[in-house]
Amino acid sequence: MTSIDRITLEVPDPAAASAFYATAFDLDGQLDLRASQTPTSGFRAFTLSLVVSQPSTVDRLIGTAVEAGARPLKPATKGFWGYGGTVQAPDGAIWKVATSSKKETGPPTRRVDDLVLLLGVADVKASKRFYVDRGLAVAKGFGSKYVELATENIKVALYGRRALAKDAGVPQEGAGAHRLAVVGDAGTFTDPDGFVWEASAA
């Protein structure tokens, strides 16, 4: 199974971004930051999701993110799938915090059970073929709507760009760099939608 070691975000000010993420979320080394002034505007066609155990943990993480400077995009609410909300970090990355549980199972914590990278792609089926041809397996698939790749440590899924923007609560329009790199043992390449994958250092 493909291992994803970490996600690298390219940010204008790594020191400021590091301070934000240290306060907002507990990610245990799964996130790297590096400086970049590469032009980008609007929706960068990805979101990062923190999957947690209960609604109070969603509220706590969204609360600390907003206090640290994140902009609320969608307030945390109950849905048929569970409970969650979305914020935008000062560097522009969009973060969703969610749980499949609608009930509390214990005291609120800041524990993150899973980090999921959702890539907004132009054609889910075409992107699926690209990744399968590169040796990545599919863990779950829902036709042309959603595909989850079989990865360890950090989950990666393919979602239609328009649907992902709607889920995030932002317009789908955007241009320029994604300012994102997926780092793991899949090798170094750029996918059809311009997402960069980098090999982990030996």
TrEMBL record:
Gene3D superfamilies in the record: 2,3-Dihydroxybiphenyl 1,2-Dioxygenase, domain 1
Give me the segments passing through the membrane.
none
Q: Which UniProt keywords apply?
A: Lyase
Q: Has the keyword Lyase been applied to this entry?
A: yes
Q: Does the keyword Lyase apply?
A: yes
Q: Which GO terms describe its molecular function?
A: lyase activity
Which protein, by its recorded name, is this?
Putative lactoylglutathione lyase
- Give the lineage: Bacteria, Bacillati, Actinomycetota, Actinomycetes, Micrococcales
